Amino acid sequence: MVRRPVAWVVAVVLFVEAFGIAALNWFLGIVVDRQDMSLAGLDPDMMSVSSKIGGIVFGLYFALCGLVALLVAVRNRPPAGFGRILLISAAVVHGLLGAFVWGLVGWTAFLFMVVVLALIVLLLMTYDSPAEPTDAVPPAAPGPGNDGGKGEGGSPVSSPPAPTTP
Asked: What is the pTM of this model?
């Protein structure tokens, strides 16, 4: 099966991406701080700190998504509850980031985002099991008074309970 290897790959990719996003934003914060640049009158120190905080927040978000994927790989069970919602949100974020990086960075970054999106969706879809009908009645075994439901002799359906009066 491809479930566990996909979960392992998703976990590794998300951990690497978490580190990469945090390091990139930290680097951008240092660049803004050292060049003492201002954008439309904004305080350069505030822009530097915001970039660093944003990098840490996004890095922790992707690391938490990677942790969910790692738990899925170790336990070999589908993500449930908050973990499933977290992975779905990561898929949406990668779809949006892919749309943005197409124009800003180029097609290689877009391709990376689409591959990560596909891996997350594959992780979510491979653990889905087909719904089994819960109200299905097993076929009755042929026996005395029951001919297997062929319409001859007895009925495989029992009669309803008798009504009671209060």
From this structure: 0.71
Say if CB 37 and CB 45 are below 8 A apart.
Answer: no
Residue 36's alpha-carbon distances to 29, 32, 43, in angstroms, are 11, 6, 9
| Rounded Cα gap, residues 138 and 151, in angstroms | 17
- Give residue-wise pLDDT tens across range 32-57: 888 877 778 888 888 889 999 999 99
pLDDT tens-digit readout, 9-36: 999 999 999 999 999 999 999 998 888 7
Q: Which residues are CB-contacts of 46 (< 8 A; sequence separation ≥ 6)?
A: none
Locate 142 and state its tokens.
């042929």
Separation between Cα atoms, residue 10 and residue 73, nearest integer Å = 9
